[in-house]
Amino acid sequence: MFKVQGLKFKYPNNQDFAVNGVDFEIQKGEIFGFLGPSGAGKSTTQKLLIKLLKDYQGEILYQGKKLTEYDDEFYQDIGVSFEMPISFSKLTAMENLEFFQRLYKNTADVEPLLRRVGLWDARHKKAGEYSKGMKIRLNFVRALLNNPKMLFLDEPTNGIDPVNGKIMKDMIREFQDQGGTVFLTSHIMSDVDELCDRVAFIVNGKLQEENSPRNLKLKYGKRLVKVEYRENGDVITQEFTMDEIKTPKFFELLKTKDIETLHSGETTLEDIFIKVTGVALHG
Fold first, then answer.
1. What is the DSSP letter of 267?
2. How far apart are CA 56 and CA 120, in angstroms?
């Protein structure tokens, strides 16, 4: 869907490159996670891919053609949900969506979308009276208005309660199942782990790692199993390597002890984020 080679971008009056020689590809039909600490170049990269920023060095190809060769027809293909919800506060939710619908040739039926995200009953309420979570959900519906081929989602579930967050994640997966492609940035690593086929980490404008969440966990995790069991009222912890779990000693422990928990040494994406970027996640 996208092929990015040697991408560099510097904001006017800045000495350092915000994006400094980045290479990656986004395959058709995949959910591609783009992760990194604040100020690492995530939003800048997204703005370059959606043609909000120009005058970059390197090359961006969209469906095999240079992004610079596309005119405004490009926007018929993409849906964007920015981290900060954007709506006309004096218009109702429905008026907002009707306004944006006029910008597109091909539009979706908004009623089922609004019903899914729980906003149908509040469709005639002014967007300015919406809570933050409601504004984010309205933003998400607007990104799907034009039946896009490609979705750009920046922190889509940040500030959303778990029930609506699950609904939105289900909708993202359904979009993928129907052939859609997603570029996702988020600090909520559980969402990234659930949704993404591949992730890339950007630090100080450069890519540090790129792989599937599973392969990253294998690379950064420990190949061991931790067993907790109770003996004489105490909780005892023992660790076994993956080779040791094939031995009689491990089976004997399982047969003879009162096992309470079994854990593999698999690491989390949050731990990997901190290792790769050197920055702890907040919030």
1. P
2. 41
Please state the separation of Cα 275 from the chain's center in Å. 19
Q: What Cα–Cα distance (Å) separates residue 249 from each residue in 63, 227, 264, 277?
A: 56, 13, 17, 39
Residue type at 259?
Answer: I
The β-bridge relationship of strands 31-35 and 181-185 is parallel
211-269 per-position pLDDT tens digit: 999 999 888 888 888 999 888 888 999 888 888 888 888 888 888 888 899 888 778 88
What tens digit of pLDDT does each residue of 163-210 get? 999 999 999 999 999 999 999 999 899 999 999 999 999 999 999 999
The model's pTM: 0.86
Place of tokens 């100020």: 39
Q: What would the two tokens of residue 83 be?
A: 């981290």
